[in-house]
Amino acid sequence: MQALTNRVKEVERKPLSFMERLYLPAIFKGMFITFMHMFKKKPTINYPEKTRPFSPVFRGIQILNRDAEGRENCTACGLCAVACPAEAITMEAAERKVGEEHLYREEKYAVKYEINMLRCIFCGLCEEACPKDAIYLSETFAAADYQRKQFVYDKKDLLIPHPIEEPEAYKKALGNKPKKETIN
Amino acid sequence: MLLAIDIGMVLEKFILIAVVVMGSLLIAMYTTFAERKVAAILQDRRGPNRAGPFGLLQPVADGLKLFFKEEIIPNFSSKALFILGPSLAMLTAIMTGAVIPWGDKVHFFDRDIQLQIADIDVGILYVFAVVSLGVYGIMIGSWASNNKFSLMGGLRAASQIISYELPMGLSLIALLMVTGNLSLKEMVLQQQAGDFWNVVYQPLGFLIFLICAFAECNRTPFDLPEAENELIGGYHTEYSSMKLGFYLFSEYINMFVSSVIMATLFFGGYDVPFLDESTIATNWAALWGILALMAKVVVFIFIFMWVRWTIPRFRYDQLMNLGWKVLIPLALFNMLLTGALVLLKANNWHF
User: Strand B105-108 relative to strand B111-114: parallel, antiparallel, unpaired?
Assistant: First the structure.
């Protein structure tokens, strides 16, 4: 038959040689291959005990930052909500009263700050938009809950632990990501 | 006196039976675990490692799971036979352990206790009889489930075991020509006293026996009765809960028992290589013997698993070809050769 292209490859249809028909050499070869696999490095990591190292730009669940004295950075300017392409962020602003200086860093703060984690696409634009370094994306990523409504994270879910009162939890929440310089 | 039964002997046999039955169940349990671990390691995975340290409680968890599963007996099955199937499979799997010499003897309370439940003269024939009964469990169960896939699996199991029993028996005849007796204990003693294990005299016979043992245990590459991807679950399609567990379990016990048989027939049984058992105390010799046997068994079980995770399943016609056109002629040839050599030897190597 005339070949349509010049890339035709003739299939070899030689009858099996005696060694091939014996079948056992092939089996031993196969068994050797599987045996050597016993000594290979296993690609699996024991997940909950061990985790893979994250890249420095990993984007996990958001966290609301505090400064070194434990005051909330957020001033409820709303830039993050504007930047958010998924429209996941809502907030309500309030004025800081006298006597609340140890709680909020500036005169204005967010009474209510909610991120709908079901909407969030973890793009990190909120982090980029924030002028006060108040929100950044942490290394936590495995969010799990029983109800959809629990995934609307409010301030108590998002706020980083107090650096003076709970220094260990604070350290843990900071993670290993290199932080941007804090703007004061 | 008619009833001069030695109570001590009855007691020791009872204990021995209990130990052997419990031991084979325990070993079968951990063989399932080993199977999963070996499979994982051969495939660069980790295998079960969550239940207990190193996942060692996994078989317990599996067993519990099977117990808690709903017991389903199909409406159109014949109920008595449906229950008889797995019971028979389990029974025959355990019965084989009766004639196997697990060790030489131990000396306790001024008694020599043979580490063998019954040293009968036709030991190996008994093993064959019981092993071929094992297929009835599969056949009855599959037929009683009133399911086409099950029936196919049962048919396959029956014809496969008939086909592979023949070369197995023929390869054994050659071995019997060399050893000259049927008692498993005698065979071990001979191998202990002789220079080499039987595998040196019967390499081809051992190879045939090994292949047939794979087929008899319904292990890959001969697991056509199960054949998950063509027959759903084969003979145990309709089974659930512990009845399924019995089928799966009996497969592992069969694997253990055939490993023991192969070790006993061809690899010296409880004979410790390069050790003269008569030079050490009886009990220690027995302990070393049991350990040696178990080491050999572990190697065989590993080979069973290793082959399973290497070689894909045969097609049914290939299976029959191999059985009838390759193994039987080969076994006959082996028999002829052995017979000729035995005769020659008896004639002091003169024609």
Answer: antiparallel
